[in-house]
Amino acid sequence: MNCETFQLKELVVEPLEIREVLRCLLHTIVFHRALGLVRPKDIECELFEITYVQCGDHELDKKIEEKTDQLIAWVEKHPNKKSQICLSFYEVKNKHASWFGNRTERFYWEQWYINLHVLNPKSHTKPHNSKAPLSTGENTSEEGSSRRTALESSLREVLFQIIRFVNEKKDHIPPVQNSEIISFPYEISTPSASDSSFGWHADVLKRMLQTGHPSMLS
Asked: Going from the N-terminus, what domains does the chain have, and what CATH number goes with each?
């Protein structure tokens, strides 16, 4: 089965911004793949002048918060590192096995990679000039405001990137088999505590090659 893979532009964030960024992106992706009867709910970001749409599904909300907590816990152990979340959609099908009877197998048809570079706030708020006066509070505040504005602009760019992808790539979507709000099973994967900052994607690829299909998500 053809599996479309979308790599989203990397966003540079601070730890306190991770939750809002992931809520915005994950809910936006799922909304565009929730082909059932959806009652859209507009959500205003707390940190950015951005409004996104949720499906109004309690289980989805719970899953996104749970996976976001996992990523934040990983970031705390790997400060100032790059990280990645993968949102996958799949079908479950019966596969005949003559020795063991029928068994189910997951067939992944779409994967979205959200790429974050999480900064340690202390690592990029130092005065630019070591001879400058100690009263650098205003400069630090201005620098933080400028960085937040740049992040908001980048986040908007990624949202448009998502919309462009969903409009351009449709042929791979399987037929809808039910009327549930979220029509297809999905998984959200994060780096585990044992993963290095760059090794996670390589490990995913290794397991994909071993299994023949991307069954690496949990």
From this structure: 4-127+135-211 (3.30.900)
Full-model pTM:
0.77
Give pLDDT tens digits for 181-205: 677 889 999 987 544 444 444 444 4
Torsion of CA 87, 9, 82, 44, to 10 degrees: -70
Backbone angles phi, psi at 204, to 5 degrees: -60, -45
Task: Choose among 208, 56, 33, 50: nearest CA to 112.
Answer: 33
Measured distance CA(84)–CA(8) in Å, rounded: 10
For 134-177, the pLDDT digits (tens) are 445 555 677 778 889 999 999 999 999 999 999 998 888 888 76
**How many Cβ atoms are within 10 Å of 151's Cβ, its own excluded?**
19
Amino acid, res. 18:
I
Counting beta carbons within 10 angstroms of the beta carbon of residue 35, is it exposed (0 to 12), middle (13 to 18) or buried (19 or more)? middle
